[in-house]
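Our preliminary data section would be incomplete without showing what the modeling component actually yields. Below, a chain of 375 amino acids is followed by its predicted structure, encoded as tokens that our downstream tools consume directly.
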Amino acid sequence: MLSVFAIVIVIFYLGLLGSFIIGFNKTPIFFYKDISAKNTFSVIIPFRNEDKDLPFLLESIKALKYSRLHFEILFVDDASEDNSVKLIQEHLKNTTINFTILNNKRTSNSPKKDAITTAIAVAKYSWIITTDADCVLPNSWLNCFNSFIAEKAPKVIVAPVTLHNTTTFFNYFQLLDVLSLQGATMGGFGIKQPFMANGANLAYQKTVFFKVNGFSSNNNIASGDDIFLLENALKQFPNGVFYLKSTKAIVSTKTESSFIAYFQQRLRWASKSTHYSNNFAKSTGIIVLLTNGILVGFSVMGLAGHFNFKLLLCFFLIKGLIDYLLIAKTARFFNQSFSFTTYIISVFLYPFTSVFVAISATLSSYKWKGRTFKK
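Predicted structure:
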């Protein structure tokens, strides 16, 4: 009976990943035209103790090619205890960048949502774009958004995010994880079931934020400024949410430096999943968790001599193959590479880390930027 159950779940998983692969292909690549600046952007960047990463972001901001009269940068200081504020001021004081440093006004259990809300309250422009302090922006970033808006007239734009400086196995392990998430994100849009977004590269009209009442329905949850806004926007504007599949819009961020940091990040991501209102997102999460859970459970049973290792290996290989098809497509879009050996090791390692994170997320709190948050 267990084998039959496992086969059924694996079939569901194959169907799910197959639909993402089809959806990935159906999501068209956008080739932006460098038209004149028509749209105005308020770029919101919350930060807390980011003086090690901010220089890279600030240099990329200075390199932006978009008209300086058509965007502003709103930095929101979330009680930093380092030199982040001074660093921002020193890097941008002699430039033509229009920037403001705000102090976060805490009103909820989510510092980041509070920071975005604080910035939107004073934002001058019609489009809001959020990114993170440890990101690097492409110089045509805003130009690409401007061209996309002119052509598609969207309400919300989800855009691509990847990892940079991948040199070690641990870096590549994280990259494979992010590529799979990005591939599923694009695939979801392609099959008209958008269910994921990343706040490191997310844009929406300011009126949309007020129309969905900001984060009022989920500000008790520390994370999820991206997913929950996407879900609420889809309810109000089902035909107004688009994916910007363009290499000119790719924002990159760093990998986590240690397993503990990686584990805490994944705990934070997993903690919001039980609050999803999107049924497709819930179903996807259940299928993925059950598939990984089966591989872990049967591995333990196999070591105890209670499960056929050949069948177990077959399950791993089937999952690894369908995952590879999606990840390879996504990697080509991002122009990133990884060794096949790294991938094979990750195929066997990932289910264990995934299940460990899922179980831990239901039992423990997590740490984020020096603070502890409950699930």
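DSSP finds twelve helices and twelve strands in the chain. The first helix runs from residue 2 to 26. Preliminary results of this kind motivate Aim 1 of the renewal.
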